[in-house]
Design goal:
The structure holds two protein chains of two kinds.
Chain A (H helix, E strand, L loop, with lengths): L3 E5 L2 E4 L3 H12 L4 E4 L16 E2 L11 H11 L6 H20 L14 E2 L9 E2 L5 H24 L6 E4 L2 E9 L2 E9 L5 E5 L2 E4 L20 H8 L4 E2 L4 E8 L13 H4 L3 E3 L23 H7 L15 H13 L9 E4 L7 H8 L1 H11 L8 E10 L2 E2 L13 E3 L16 H22 L9 H16 L6 H15 L3 E2 L1 H18 L18 H25 L8 E2 L7 H4 L1 E8 L6 E8 L5 H4 L4 H7 L7 H4 L9 H5 L9
Parallel strand pairs in A: 1-10, 2-3, 2-11, 3-7, 11-18, 19-20
Antiparallel strand pairs in A: 4-6, 5-6, 8-9, 9-10, 12-17, 12-21, 13-16, 14-15, 15-16, 21-22
Helix pairs in contact in A: 1-4, 1-11, 2-3, 3-11, 5-15, 13-14, 13-15, 14-15
Chain B lengths: L2 E10 L4 E10 L5 H11 L19 E4 L2 E4 L13 E5 L6 E3 L2 E2 L2 H9 L17 H11 L6 H5 L1 H4 L11 H12 L8 H6 L11 H5 L6 H18 L1 H9 L12
Parallel strand pairs in B: 1-5
Antiparallel strand pairs in B: 1-2, 3-4, 3-5, 6-7
Helix pairs in contact in B: 3-6, 6-9
The chains are: A alpha/beta, B alpha+beta.
């Protein structure tokens, strides 16, 4: 029998990004013995990639800002698909969470009065993002990391052991949640360094594992984003909400390969950058939709005049909304007019009156990013760009107040949870989401543990099944190379379930995923040559186990995307370009069904909970009519005739700059 | 534009190991980490390497490339000639776990010994600090904890025996960061010298040279910290002021 370590905790937090660390801090502050399980080293989470800032209506830059304005912006950004209760809690509590960080030592940029500075961002009515230059995510991680150290120091002073109440399990990966009957009783994990197995016995588990980007070929996400939490939740019997909503950014770097997927800020296009195809043509002029015909230039000359004289000229079509630009890039590539590496060209060469010096002055971070990471001098060469998978709005269905999932003892916070951002997340709302709901999930888990009459026990059969599953890739002597299967899964998702979707392609994707499922179940690895049992730091084995998770989330995204016959936020259907008020009322909920040895994703339609009246009253009636059906409108306005269905295109024009940058 | 490059990669665990030769495809625009990943995907699926963001922001993929401590994701292949053999070894100051992965727990232990930020009685939301005052510590908070400065510092790189008494540039900088934090109330000057080995540093600036974030560790953190320690101990005006009760003597904060 394989040797297994066992450790008991009150609360186990899976994930050590912003949400996980904040959840763990809260559980420890509530007196719970807490473990943080992290796939990476402590402090390396993907949260460090966030640049823009954390949205919180502190009113430091504009005193008119308050939670109600923030709430409205969030609901608009999410096209009213948000869990309104989460959006409300988020808007109300974000300022406290930011001030708390400062109390733990964070150093945000300042206003002249010495308060926390707040910057403008797409979709936010007032300057609202607390920030530290362009490394706000790093500040958030470092501050929560250091708060955890501070708590460990308190425990050390009291007990002589830094880890007596709060321990970080670095480079440790959870492969299964364990259940005692219908409730959570722990988690099964392997330690990366040695490959040894660990059973965490715990009545409450908080998922804070982030996103799913690694299921796509082009993504801004890091290797950890393999949908672990989404998949662990499904396998434990919990549900996922609205997985079709995935945020793509139209311009990620596609070349060189070392930086594939990394974002290229929209301000490149705002600063005279133009998109060209392989024939050297500024193709965006061919892609101006009918509804925008009057707002965009029809000739290059007019578009070019706009930068200096916006009052008397129309905008160049490079500045169309995000989906339109992405759709156009997609079409050019599919028509064979893409750049050598599957994108299109974005160039500022010879575009600025001040020449190269002006490019460097106006786009310093982009110049630096391409120079340092890619050895591309954007003053001399074009950039190659294409859509990149950035963020998943869908996630574990949770109770807004406590973060509780549908399985007793399971909680979720941050990107892995669903609902908060609706169909589309505003830039800056992610970092504050992590703090607000990380804390709430930590609190929810602690209260759940307090309310338990007795601790659940870990059934041996659960552990044995988890061991067998984890060791399976070593048993398959003729198994397929996991890297090859992963590459194909990513290609399938990228090509068929990407930024622009169609019924036929989605059906094709589901069929392809069905075949890939068998190959995922048949990947094999051989033990490493050194070490005791050949499982120490074995990346091929790790990928083999991660593949199960990416497979499940891919199925969930593809099936939900096929089901939702409308275009809204992070879900664009070429065959259903309109946003539909009837579809807004529908949440698509994924669960697992079928043979437990090889379960498949099953979809269920679930009605959206109607918004509370006092929240509804924060919006103008005309705006509500764009999103809601006549029956949903407040009684006094329902009698008025409703306008025609709002076009998703028209609507998204308002938030040209949403996303992280 | 692709070619076959010659690589020597250190393979083994904490017991034994050797440089293994590989010939591997290199394409235009790639970095060393891409090549390591290609080795994993095609020739050595069990090659251990630590990495995360691939964008120079997380500080996970530290290694020594042709003897230079660097981030693999920030080392472009175009900086080498096509016939050059590229040697990749784990960072030397820390014990090897396997292949290119080292045990950096030393750093997490040192981090725990430094007394944390102390806000005093100020309540959340009530801090008022000027931009120019926060900027000094903000520079140090750019640190991505790649530990290349720890790796290159000869105090511990060449002298294992100094490890217990020396926190290394990263954590001496952390002390400086807290000491220069406008709202911090603790006094870590005494322990900087006594417990964490500030005196070992003889300002050779190796740490500054390898910092991928271009933090001026020596000039902006270590030297000013040395001055503060010395000023507290030997400045005659401070000494006299303390005796006369004009300068309130700081309460030394012990190591945590």
């Amino acid at each position: 029998m394989t040797e297994i370590e066992r450790h008991a905790y009150d609360v186990v937090v899976i994930g050590a990004g912003g949400a996980g660390l904040r959840a763990a801090i809260e559980a420890r502050l509530q007196g719970k013995k807490t473990a943080i399980i992290s796939k990476s080293l402590f402090g390396k989470a993907h949260t460090v990639m966030a640049e823009g800032g954390a949205a919180a209506a502190m009113g430091n830059a504009n005193p008119n800002d308050n939670w109600m304005v923030h709430f409205r912006d969030t609901m608009r950004g999410g096209k009213f698909m948000n869990s309104w209760r989460m959006a409300e809690l988020h808007a109300k509590e974000a300022p406290e969470r930011i001030w708390e960080l400062e109390h733990w030592g964070a150093l945000f940029d300042r206003t002249k009065e010495g308060k926390i500075s707040q910057r403008n961002f797409g979709g936010h009515e007032y300057p609202r993002l607390a920030h530290v230059g362009d490394r706000t995510g790093l500040e958030l991680i470092r501050t929560t990391q250091q708060k955890i150290v501070a708590l460990q120091q308190e425990d050390h002073a009291e007990t002589g052991d830094y880890e007596s109440r709060l321990k970080v399990w670095a480079e440790t990966t959870v492969t299964r949640l364990l259940k005692d009957g219908d409730r959570i009783c722990g988690a099964f994990a392997y330690v990366r360094e040695t490959g040894r197995f660990v059973v965490f016995e715990a009545p409450a588990v908080v998922l804070a594992t982030g996103g799913i980007g690694k299921a796509f070929k082009v993504t801004s996400n890091s290797w950890e984003y393999t949908g672990d939490g989404h998949s662990l939740a499904l396998l434990a019997g919990a549900t996922l909400l609205n997985m079709e909503f995935v945020q793509f950014h139209p311009t990620g770097m596609v070349w060189p390969p070392s930086v594939k997927g990394i974002l290229v800020t929209e301000s490149v296009r705002g600063d005279r950058g133009v998109l060209k195809n392989s024939e050297g043509k500024r193709f965006m002029f061919d892609y101006v939709p009918e509804v925008f015909k009057n707002q965009y230039a029809t000739t290059e000359a007019e578009g070019d005049r706009w930068y200096d004289d916006p009052d008397n000229n129309k905008r160049p079509p490079e500045l169309l909304p995000r989906d339109e630009v992405a759709r156009a890039i997609n079409s050019e590539v599919k028509a064979g007019r893409g750049s050598p590496h599957g994108g299109v060209f974005l160039t500022v060469v010879d575009r600025m009156p001040g020449g190269a010096a002006e490019i460097v002055r106006r786009l310093p971070s982009m110049h630096h990013q391409f120079k340092e990471l890619a050895d591309v001098d954007i003053t001399k060469e074009p950039m190659e760009v294409g859509p990149t998978c950035h963020y998943v709005m869908g996630g574990v269905e949770v109770d807004p107040d406590t973060g509780a999932a549908k399985v007793p003892g399971l909680f979720a916070a941050g990107e892995v949870s669903g609902g908060m951002h609706g169909s589309n997340r505003l830039g800056g709302n992610s970092l504050s989401d992590l703090l607000v709901f990380g804390r709430r999930a930590g609190l929810g888990a602690s209260e759940y543990v307090d309310g338990l009459p007795e601790r659940p026990a870990v059934p041996e059969a659960e552990v044995e099944a988890a061991v067998t599953e984890a060791l399976a890739p070593f048993e398959r002597e003729d198994g397929e190379n996991p890297y090859a299967v992963h590459a194909e899964l990513q290609q399938t998702m990228n090509d068929l379930v990407g930024i622009i979707r169609k019924e036929g392609e989605l059906q094709q994707a589901i069929e392809a995923l069905g075949k890939l499922r068998e190959r995922v179940a048949n990947v094999g690895v051989t033990p490493v040559a050194v070490g005791d049992d050949g499982r120490g730091y074995h990346p091929g084995w790790h990928l083999s186990l991660d593949l199960r998770n990416m497979m499940l989330v891919s199925e969930a995204v593809a099936k939900a995307a096929l089901e939702r016959q409308e275009s809204r936020g992070g879900h664009t259907r070429d065959d259903y370009p309109q946003m539909s008020a009837d579809w807004r009322k529908v949440n698509l909920v994924c669960g697992l069904a079928g043979d437990p040895a090889s379960p498949h994703v099953e979809l269920k339609r679930q009605p959206m909970v109607p918004m509370r009246e006092d929240l509804l009253a924060l919006f103008e009636t005309d705006e509500l009519k764009k999103y809601l059906t006549a029956e949903e409108l407040p009684a006094e306005v329902a009698a008025e005739p409703a306008p025609a269905e709002a076009s998703a295109e028209e609507d998204s024009a308002e938030e040209n700059e949403e996303g992280d940058r | 534009m692709s070619y076959e490059a010659k690589f020597k990669v250190w393979r083994g665990d904490d017991g034994a190991g050797e440089l293994t030769d590989y010939t591997v495809e290199v394409n235009e625009g790639e970095v060393v980490l891409d090549i390591i990943h290609r080795l994993q995907a095609t020739q050595a699926p069990d090659l251990a390497v630590r990495w995360n963001c691939k964008a120079g922001k997380c500080g996970s993929c530290s290694a020594e490339i042709n003897g230079m401590p660097r981030l693999m994701c920030m080392t472009r292949m175009s900086t080498f000639t096509e016939d050059e053999t590229i040697t990749v070894t784990p960072i030397r100051t820390f014990p090897v776990i396997r292949d290119l992965v080292t045990d950096v727990s030393f750093n997490y232990e040192k981090a725990r010994q430094i007394p944390s930020f102390d806000p005093g009685d100020v309540k959340p939301g009530e801090f008022r600090m000027q931009q120019e005052d926060v900027e000094r510590s903000q520079e140090f908070r750019k640190c991505i904890e790649c530990y290349l400065c720890q790796n290159v510092c000869h105090v511990i790189r060449d002298h294992e025996e100094n490890k217990p008494e020396f926190a290394g540039p990263r954590f001496l900088m952390r002390i400086a960061e807290l000491e220069m934090h406008p709202a911090d109330q603790a006094d870590r000057r005494e322990i900087a010298a006594k417990d964490h080995g500030l005196g070992f540093c003889n300002i050779t600036k190796c740490c500054t040279e390898v910092c991928p974030e271009h933090i001026k560790i020596t000039d902006n953190a270590l030297i000013p910290m040395k001055e503060r320690v010395v000023g507290r101990k030997y400045d005659p005006v401070v000494w006299l002021g303390t005796k006369l009760g004009i300068v309130r003597k700081g309460q030394d904060t012990p190591s945590a």
